[in-house]
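Give me the 3D structure for Probable transcriptional regulatory protein OM076_25475.
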Amino acid sequence: MAGHSKWAGIKHKKAIVDSRRGKLFTKLARAITVAAKEGGGDVVGNAALGLAVQKAKDASMPKDNIERAIAKGTGAGADADTMEAVMYEGYGPGGVAMLVEAFTDNRNRTGSEIRHAFAKHGGNLGEPGSVAYLFDKKGVVVVDGEKYSEDDLMPALDAGAEDIVLEDDVYEILCEPSDLTAMRAALVDAGIEVVESQVMQRPKTLVPLDEDGAIKLMKLIDTLEDLDDTDTVHANFDVDAEILERVAG
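Predicted structure for Probable transcriptional regulatory protein OM076_25475 (249 residues):
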């Protein structure tokens, strides 16, 4: 999975130094609002909300912003929110399976924007269930590989970690989603600085792409990620790490 892991590493490092913080905070706030709307405003009792809030804290989102997003979701704020989570499924260039997680207050608008992005960049939007079976939902904690060694991460194994992957100086520590909070806590208690923690869709199989295919796919991914309603894009491609570095650069 070198090429795919390389992509994950590049994305995580980009998150560390992301200069588009205003747009990032908007996306994080939407995730918090939807989690609070669906499961209530108790961070301890609502696991999805707890993960969304932790992700926001990892990105240094101000406490006031987080509290406003929770209030908006529960209806305790000035206006109750109509935001909801939606998953879109489709195929990109080269037959790459793609999942697009979005938060929207207008399904028609978001669906139209995502469909247009797929069509413009050589892909096509599919029906619900068309590609989701090709992914496993996993918890992931991201740690800076330049600061720590794999031995430093051993506390994660006792807390449910299934695998530790290093790519592009970034560690991805994988677990079942239900173990994510405990695994993160074990690392923090051991003095490990966590870059981010989240639930992700990890591909079961990978589709190889050449450089031309990788360029086309990255244009589609960039377009999807730039949409205001898009939260996360997952794709099951594999590209040679050197090619991917050139394309992503």
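The first strand starts at residue 84 and ends at 91. Let me know if you want a second pass.
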